[in-house]
Design a protein that fits this description.
By secondary structure, the chain is an all-alpha fold. It has one domain. The protein is 79% helix and 0% strand. It is built from 5 helices and no strands. The two termini are 15 Å apart. The structure holds protoporphyrin IX containing FE.
Length: 145
């Protein structure tokens, strides 16, 4: 069980790194566009270049889905309380909502993608921090022999 708990922590830490990369990729895409010179050719070229970063954001977003699914499996394996497993499942539901928000076609609605990102990062950080399996056990919390 302990190995599952450690694995849950490691995968949770990887998820946080993936979230950071996600923010980096989309910011890099936006800056590629806003830094373009104000003429049609340069703006077109900038959009083409930004596609690379946006593509990485999409790819990493899909991998984040797999990471969360692995965490759900590890939460079962760790026999964590239902609350933890359900909240890890909620993280996956939020990712599905994240994909849907990216495709509404209504910018004012799709903007919620940015807010949902904050909720996902907060929940991911909470689950990883709260269930961190590498804390030295103090006497009060040490398991009975
Ligand atoms: C937790 C952080 C985030 C996750 C997990 C995430 C996830 C995703 C995913 C999975 C997609 C692809 C949807 C698809 O086509 O299947 C996507 C697209 C997109 N995301 Fe995010 N996102 C995050 C944060 C952000 C932030 C903070 C922004 C902007 C402020 C953003 C802006 C976009 C944009 C503009 C697209 C469309 C890219 C394109 O069509 O080429 N995302 N995101």
């Amino acid at each position: 069980m302990s190995i599952f708990r450690k694995a849950y922590s490691v995968v949770g830490a990887i998820l946080m790194l993936q979230f950071l990369a996600q923010l980096y990729f989309i910011a890099a895409a936006i800056f590629t566009i806003v830094n373009a010179n104000d003429n049609a050719k340069d703006v077109y070229t900038a959009f083409k270049s930004a596609d690379n970063f946006a593509g990485l954001h999409t790819l990493n977003g899909d991998i984040i889905g797999l990471t969360i699914l692995v965490m759900i499996g590890l939460s079962f394996g760790s026999r964590y309380p239902w609350r933890t497993t359900i909240l890890t499942g909620v993280l996956f539901v939020l990712l599905v909502i994240q994909v849907l928000l990216a495709h509404t076609g209504i910018p004012a609605l799709s903007g919620l993608h940015g807010l949902n990102a904050l909720v996902m990062i907060g929940l991911g950080g909470f689950l990883t921090g709260r269930n961190w399996a590498f804390r030295p056990q103090t006497e009060g919390t040490a398991a009975a022999p």
